[in-house]
Design a protein that fits this description.
nine-stranded mixed sheet; globular; five-stranded parallel sheet
Amino acid sequence: MAEILVLVDHADGAVRKPALELLTIARRIGEPSAVVLGAGEAAASIAATAGEYGAATVYVADGAEFTEQLVVPKVDALTQIAKEKGAAAVLVTSSGEGKEIAARVALRLGSGLITDAVELEAGENGPVATQSVFAASYQVRSTVSKGVPVVTVKPNSAAPEAAPAAGTVENVSVAFTGNAAKVVSRTPRVSTGRPELTEAAIVVSGGRGVNGAENFAIIEALADSLGAAVGASRAAVDAGWYPHANQVGQTGKQVSPQLYVASGISGAIQHRAGMQTSKTIVAINKDAEAPIFELVDYGVVGDLFDVVPQLTEEVKTRKG
């Protein structure tokens, strides 16, 4: 079978969920091989996890370059492995860093690039990707016509499915090109205990209708009752009511959870571009004419200050 390289995202010694999704998707188009970079002492456990999810081979490369420099060392490694192993395709998580890595790898390989795929399937001339375009108003199917296809896939595009494989580990010595921007300091992000916004299965977002930073507590309460991440519209973050890191939309983060709850959000096209691929969308808004109701699966016309607390209590009651 054709060898499909999957760049494995990891943090704090553990494989991140989108990487397991990529390994699951890779099995649809060939035989997955995992690429684990800069994992240090955690490399063995990460390789074992990759094997559990279908990686026949795990290529491991280590070195201070992966932590001391930005992006370029990962590009060096992924490009080298793709060339040496004759990979049929390269899959990367569709994050900010992931898309930069993918673009650089595609350039070095002289290949075509597809970003933000939500589905992949085998085709006669290589992988066929499904993408949501024009603010998720349309879906298109795309293929790469030149070189080794490099594809970034949005988180939550598939449910991770275990499929134990050999997981044979092969250590790789990378010829680094240098000339990379260097990391001079790091500041750990304060943990909220909630899921990562772009990876969460459930997202609860608040917008202009929340009417103040102090009122985001009711959005957080609903999110916590559901085990969800908290998002916000651009209007809310621009007003200083919630951190910009939580913005969902065209100029914020793109999410594609199983459930998206929009409270007090009108549904302007810029916001829809960041969440319209969500599997199930629920909107709460007192304006029955709000554009958000055009795309929802379920809509509640009502004051969020009445509806959201009741919803939170009902969720808590049903969860016991």
